């Protein structure tokens, strides 16, 4: 069973600024990839651009813009491109099913609030030695950020909610913990009701 756990990050002022820049740059990458897909379809005789093509362009984008796109994790940028690809897959699935399609939208900086890191150690690494109740997460381009508590993680996401920052750990093979029996019964038996 996969479960996600959310823990509060405690970034410094400089780290908070770097986290904001990371979100803005990933948002810019997402919107640029969306624009490329729209333009290719509209202006280039209905040509489709796929995830593989956009992922291959990341090296050139990072080399062209080392101060912004080049400083973040390549894997997290691939995850952002995959996020757009999933939005298009869902769009085409809904079109095929005859549902209301909902074309993928451009994201404003305030609406783009999560950066995913596909695996621990690839642009984002947890410090396995706790420092009291505090451990640290090293984020490429940000540094070591304090966080309270950890579990073994499969994927790591950095998320902004309002003015707070969180790390979300998707943990694999978490045993289910059954609730204690209370003896209380909830629900309504409609069959035994009389009118």
UniProtKB/TrEMBL annotation:
What domain of life?
Bacteria
Q: Per the database record, which ranges form the Transposase putative helix-turn-helix domain?
A: 1-43
Q: Which Pfam families match?
A: HTH_OrfB_IS605 (PF12323)
GO MF terms held by the record = endonuclease activity
Q: Which organism is it from?
A: Streptomyces ehimensis
List keywords of the entry alphabetically. Answer: Endonuclease, Hydrolase, Nuclease
Can you name this protein? RNA-guided endonuclease InsQ/TnpB family protein
